[in-house]
Amino acid sequence: MEIEKSNRGRKIVVAVDESEESMHALSWCLDNIVVVSEQTSDCFTTLVLLYVKPPPPPFSPFDVADYLLGNDIVGSMEEYSRKLVESVMSRAQAICMKYSNNINIKVEKRVGSGDAKQVICGTVEKLGADMLVMGSHGYGFLKRALLGSVSYDCAKRVKCPVVVVKHPENT
After folding, report:
1. What is the pLDDT, as a whole number, of residue 115?
2. DSSP-assigned beta bridge partners for residue 15
3. What is the pTM of this model?
4. Of 21, 55, 72, 83, whose CB count within 10 A is highest?
5. Going by C-beta distance under 8 Å and a sequence separation of 6 or more, which residues neighbour residue 4?
6. CB-side exposure of 33: number of CA atoms within 13 Å?
7. Over the stretch 45-95, which tens digit does the pLDDT of each residue have?
8. Distance (Å, rounded) from C-alpha 74 to C-alpha 66?
9. Exposure b/e, 50-80, CB count within 10 A at least 16 = b
10. Are 129 and 50 in contact (CB under 8 A)?
């Protein structure tokens, strides 16, 4: 089994979003996992940048606002979502490009839609990822209790190692 993995290289999924915490996690991954492994082994690394956009809010055909402004609102929301995805992915790509001279990695971009926990875990499983790297927003007990923790849920559900990177300001 190990021979098969070394032939295909390693696949690391990095969950990215519009937060500084996720971009810090990507930089940390490149510094501490990818660069180090490139120097110590001949294993090729594929870095999968995964962005999960929230599902669109449900609109009812009987909704008055939808009836009056439906096309404009839905179109604007889709355009905003598309621009947000482009912005996040371009920031992540720029971080990866800083390392392109030092290491030889393949970068794939994936965009999912839905509940972040389910999409991230499903993508990791589907790709057969060797590692998942995520940033931590550093929420306290109350916010975490109300909002939930994507990283905690993913750490419980996926079969590969999960690295949760704290932003230096949150330590």
Report:
1. 92
2. 50
3. 0.81
4. 21
5. none
6. 25
7. 899 999 999 876 665 555 555 555 556 676 777 888 899 999 999 999 999
8. 8
9. bbbbeeeeeeeeeeeeeeeeeeeeeeeeeee
10. no
H helix intervals, 17-159: 20-29, 35-40, 64-98, 116-127, 141-147, 150-157
Angle at which helices 64-98 and 20-29 pack, to 10 degrees? 30
Q: What are 20's two structure tokens?
A: 């500084």
Which of 124, 147, 144, 146 has its CA nearest to residue 134? 124
Task: Tell me the two tokens of residue 69.
Answer: 């402004």
Of 62-66, 97-101, 165-169, minimum mean pLDDT range: 62-66
Give CA–CA dist 42/21, Å, rounded: 30
Instruction: Mention every residue, 6+ apart, whose C-beta is less than 8 A from residue 67.
Output: 61
